[in-house]
Structure formats: C-alpha cells, structure tokens
C-alpha cells in the first residue's frame, strides 16, 4: 500500500551575496515519488529530484530563507535524503 506524506524544504542563504535563482537537487533512497509541490516546480527522473524556484521566491538575500512544500508517496521504507546540492554545490541537509 502506497503512503503519502507532506514535506518541506528550506533553503537558507548563509553567504554574503544574494542568490538569484535556485535549483535544489537530491535523490530518494527508497523509490519515493513526488506527487505535488507548492513554492517550487519540480522534475523527477528515477530517484533524482530537482526543485526550482518559482517567480516570487527566486531571490534569497543573505541571512534569509526560501521554502517550498511537497507531497510524496512511497511503499516500504521511507529513508530521509542525506545529500543535497544547491545550484550545483553541495549543501547541508
């Protein structure tokens, strides 16, 4: 039986320059599937997910956050992703 769960991701700009446009990537370990997102557009190919800003949250000033929500589904295990990249650079979880 597939289960559904809402999730949220927050991107915090810890740098000194604004981020103008963002793309957050991660992989699901257990075959989870994104079904819906708000505050971001997304694509998923196999386990790899890419979430990209929408028009109103693409610029993140230093010490400011942007967040988006999603609903995912899975069967069996639901291991939390552990590796993320923001605009191609590794970032925290």
* Second-tier CATH architecture of the domain at 1-57 and 66-72: Sandwich
Would you state the CATH class of the domain at 1-57 and 66-72? Mainly Beta
With helices defined by DSSP (H or I, 4 residues minimum), what is the helix count?
Answer: 0
Number of E strands: 10
Shape: elongated
Account of the protein in words:
With 93 residues, the chain is mainly β. 0% of the residues lie in helices and 57% in strands. It has no helices and 10 strands. β9 and β10 (89-91) form a beta hairpin. The protein is elongated and about 40 Å long. The mean pLDDT is 93.
Question: What does this entry show, briefly?
Answer:
The chain is an all-beta fold and 93 residues long.
What topology emerges from the helices and strands here?
Blueprint: E1 3-12, E2 19-20, E3 23-27, E4 33-38, E5 40-45, E6 48-53, E7 59-60, E8 65-74, E9 84-86, E10 89-91
Antiparallel strand pairs: 1-8, 2-7, 3-6, 3-9, 4-8, 5-6, 9-10
Quick tags:
single chain; 93 residues; mainly beta; Immunoglobulin-like; five-stranded antiparallel beta sheet; three-stranded antiparallel beta sheet; 10 strands; elongated
């Amino acid at each position: 039986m597939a289960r559904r769960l809402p999730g949220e991701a927050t991107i915090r700009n810890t740098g000194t320059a604004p981020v103008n446009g963002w793309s957050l990537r991660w992989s699901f370990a257990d075959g989870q599937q994104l079904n819906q997102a708000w505050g971001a557009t997304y694509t998923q190919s196999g386990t790899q997910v890419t979430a990209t800003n929408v028009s109103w949250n693409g610029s993140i000033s230093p010490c400011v956050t942007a967040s988006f929500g999603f609903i995912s589904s899975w069967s069996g295990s639901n291991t939390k992703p552990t590796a993320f990249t923001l605009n191609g650079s590794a970032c925290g979880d």
